[in-house]
Amino acid sequence: MSTINFTPGSVVGRYEILRRIGAGGMAEVYLGKVIDAPETRIALKRLAPAFADQPRFVEMFVAEARLAATLNHPNIARVYEAVIDRDVCYFAMEHVHGHDVRTLLAAAIARGKAMPLPLAISIIYGVTVALAYVHDPRGPHAKLNIVHRDISPSNILVSLDGAIKLVDFGIARVETGAVTRTPSGQIKGKIPYMSPEQCRARPLDGRSDLFSLGVVLYELTTNTRPFDRASEFETLEAIVRGEITPPSKLVPGYPADLEAIVLRLLATRPGDRYPSAGPLLVDLDRLVSAHAIDLSSRALAAHVATLLGLGEMPVSVAGSPTVRDIRPRIPGAVAGLSAEARAPIDRIAARCGEILERISPGTSDARDLPAPAIAQLVGRAMRAQAKGDLENAVLALELALSAARPDEGIDALLAANEALFLGVFTAYIGDQSRMAALSQHLDQLVGIAIDQRAAFLLTRIDGTLTAGELIATCGLPAREAYRHLCQLVLREIVVLV
After folding, report:
1. Do 11-94 and 98-307 come out as alike in CATH topology?
2. In which band, very low, low, confident or very high, does the pLDDT at 178 lie, cut at 50, 70 and 90?
3. Where in the chain are the domains?
């Protein structure tokens, strides 16, 4: 296979090459721009010239492109186009403007401190959500039995605006059973992050990826790899034997609940680990709640900026944004939008204000509502649903959930109206064209902080689960799951109105 020139300024298909931004293994990555849309940046990954004439490596590269192109998830870098012919072998993918986690780790080490806990947990949460999608036994890829096999800091990207993306499915295994080896007989993957079964060249499943994620979590929170030894052989031996120092022995005050998660992920026997990403998300959510960690992209971006010395940004420890927070909190974000783009956001904010004024005159924030007013909101939602007015039903439910305070018995009130919630969301979830549009446009919303847990719920809306099953399998307390679903539907209204 001959190769096309990838030097800066050269044209490759529909793209102009700007510069090389990375290389490793059998591939090179270039930053490019779309010729017909010069402001649009993409990443072009090509098979390195040294491997371009070797059929086995071409086959592996093509397999990666085909697999990656089937993965559509907010926490996985998207592949737009693959070009495989006798002159060139490359694919165009989403350009993540930011850094890999390896770079963030280096920045933390340079400061002599561990990575801030909220940043570390946000990164792990984002990757866990991606793995939940890839490993889902009821999802679109269930028959492929995908195992990434290379979960490591260099394959996790964090954008400057707070998005987390898992990349490089180049050595992912999609068949059940056999383990692939390199020509020299070395097992594929980065040794310090391999699971014991991967080190032994045994069949793998999703629990192997979770072990590797545990290694990353250990490293992010201690600045130390758990199995690093003087040689690769000794590292492999330590992994297989499970020789690990508990994080609390390295870091004074290490949270006990976090250590429990780390040690379960790093269990030597797969059966002693989390069985899948779902139960891990449950424990991560408990950790997030216990430590008041903000998982929003806005908070993540602020932590990254601070860590890299890009300027101090205020970080809130508040929970997910309510509908009254629908106007962006980042100064100037709305001002930069056109009047047309602002219109649906302004309209929903105005509608919420109207509902609050009718329910409780003089109240501008749902969180200030008394319990009786919340009951009125639930009643309003019921009446709107009965009329087929789903938008107003969702607005009323979101306002009620925003104001919900367990100490006043609001959870019981909401639990008593579960049929209402399920009825509203069954109508939305049952409309596949609506859900497809929501999935397609979610990332295009400007100025609304999208909680990763809400994004995870979106990936489960694929027509295979009922609303009740969706709530049961998302790994969140029911009230939080309902709130996230409300927010997703509101975002759909903003985009599609």
Report:
1. no
2. very low
3. 11-94, 98-307, 323-496
Report the C-alpha gap between 428 and 475 in whole angstroms.
20
**Contact of 47 with 170, CB cutoff 8 Å:** no
CA 69 distance to own-chain centroid: 17
Average pLDDT, the chain: 75
Does CATH number 1.10.510.10 belong to domain 98-307?
yes
Q: What is the pLDDT of residues 281-334, one digit of tens each?
A: 889 988 988 888 888 788 888 899 888 877 544 433 333 333 333 333 333 334
CATH architecture of 11-94: 2-Layer Sandwich (3.30)
Long-range own/partner contacts, residues 65-69 (CB < 8 A, 24 or more apart): 65/91, 67/144, 67/146, 67/169, 67/172, 67/174, 68/93, 68/169
pLDDT in tens, 126-167: 999 889 888 887 766 667 778 888 899 989 999 888 889 998
Which residues does residue 12 pair with via DSSP β-bridges, in sequence order? Answer: 15
346-362 burial, b at 16+ Cβ within 10 Å, e below that, comes to bebbebbeebbeebbee
Catalytic residues: 150
- Residue 183 and residue 116 in contact, taking contact as beta carbons nearer than 8 Å: no
Quote the CA–CA distance of 321 and 59 in Å, as a whole number.
46
Answer whether 0.85 is exceeded by the pTM.
no
Burial degree of 409 (CB within 10 A; 0-12, 13-18, 19+): exposed
Q: Which residues have CB under 8 Å from 214's CB, separation 6+?
A: 262, 264, 265, 266, 273
C-alpha torsion sign, points 476, 479, 481, 484: negative
| Confidence class for position 28, pLDDT limits 50, 70, 90 | confident
